[in-house]
């Protein structure tokens, strides 16, 4: 490791280091150079005890960020690379709460401006919940002329409606899973002709407590079906949102869709306020019994 920057040359080197990271742990997978520092700062400010930046060696970090995260040289682009990495982290951190996302994605949970991620997870655990449903809410620049890459923190927009859910069928029985739904909406719904059918869901179990034998699957669900539920059998539970420019970036970067899209705005676009209150008012996150 070099100076104040704590860097590991590979995930193997990090896992073989033998240290037990404090939780909750955030694993941020960096796919490109867009908003790396703001993504990491946002999750540090949420109160994660350990923030892992898994990123290509050539990418740069600001000194203030580099001194506060654990950097792991990693290429997230190969198929299944992120899923495999998360499963290795799960096996290495039993009983710790884990969170994962990509650069230019930002976690928002109820009252996150005044309450830390540890406070929220403590309450969630007291409700005997070991995982939390997170909705990936698409963000996009309001003006693609001035922001051709579709990313603008100062003028970010989201869809205030157009979200829906369908029953999730158990392939073994042909019947719906209990308390599981497939959620859709946002840019993946409005521009679905450019999105493969298997990539259109916007639900992700982004927060969960690791345990022996648990596995993250390619569709961003977990091997324990109870972890994939949106609530317990008795009442509604907390949910969170991962506000993400990732789909907008991909749609503008892909030659097959870029020239077909002059704007992401439509009648149900609204400017993102970067505050959990707005997401609560729009019904995009759920406080459950936490007030």
Task: Walk me through the structure.
The protein has 9 helices and 14 strands. With 291 residues, it is of the alpha/beta class. The longest helix is centred in the N-terminal third of the chain and has 12 residues, at 81-92. It is globular and about 50 Å long.
Strand order of the largest sheet: 1-4-3-2-5-12-7-13-6
The unreliable regions are none
Question: Fraction of residues in helices?
Answer: 10-25%
Q: Count helical runs.
A: 9
Tell me the number of structural domains: 2
**Beta strands, count:** 14
Q: Assign the structural class, choosing from mainly alpha, mainly beta, alpha/beta, alpha+beta, or little secondary structure.
A: alpha/beta
What kind of assembly state do the chains in view correspond to? single chain
Gyration radius, in Å: 19 Å
Globular, elongated, flat, extended or rod-shaped: what is the shape? globular
Mean pLDDT over the residues = 94
Question: What is the terminal-to-terminal distance?
Answer: 43 Å
Q: Which strand-content bin applies to the residues?
A: 15-25%
Main sheet, how many strands, which sense, barrel? 9 strands, mixed
Q: Which H/E pattern describes the elements?
A: EHEHEHEHEEHEEEEEHEEHHEH
């Amino acid at each position: 490791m070099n100076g104040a920057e704590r860097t590991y040359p590979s995930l193997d080197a990090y896992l073989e280091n033998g240290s037990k990271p404090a939780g909750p742990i955030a694993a941020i997978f960096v796919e490109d150079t867009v908003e790396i520092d703001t993504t990491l700062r946002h999750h540090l400010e949420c109160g994660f005890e350990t923030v892992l930046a898994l990123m290509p060696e050539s990418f740069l970090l600001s000194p203030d960020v580099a001194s506060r995260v654990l950097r792991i040289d990693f290429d997230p682009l190969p198929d299944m690379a992120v899923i495999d990495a998360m499963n290795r982290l799960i096996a290495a951190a039993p009983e710790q709460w884990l969170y994962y996302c990509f650069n230019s994605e930002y976690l928002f949970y109820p009252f996150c401006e005044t309450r830390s991620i540890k406070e929220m997870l403590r309450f969630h655990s007291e409700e005997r919940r070991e995982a939390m449903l997170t909705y990936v809410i698409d963000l996009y620049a309001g003006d693609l002329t001035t922001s051709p890459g579709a990313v603008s923190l100062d003028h970010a927009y989201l869809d205030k409606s157009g979200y829906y859910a369908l029953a999730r069928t158990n392939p073994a029985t042909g019947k719906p899973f209990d308390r599981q739904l497939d959620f859709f909406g946002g840019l993946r719904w409005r521009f679905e002709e450019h999105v493969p059918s298997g990539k259109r869901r916007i639900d992700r179990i982004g927060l969960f407590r690791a345990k022996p034998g648990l596995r993250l699957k390619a569709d961003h669900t977990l091997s324990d079906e109870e972890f994939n539920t949106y609530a317990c059998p008795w009442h509604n539970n907390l949910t969170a949102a991962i506000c993400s420019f990732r789909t907008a970036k991909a749609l503008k970067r892909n030659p097959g869709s870029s020239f077909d899209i002059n704007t992401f705005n439509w009648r149900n676009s609204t400017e993102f306020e970067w505050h959990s209150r707005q997401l609560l008012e729009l019904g995009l996150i759920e406080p459950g019994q936490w007030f």
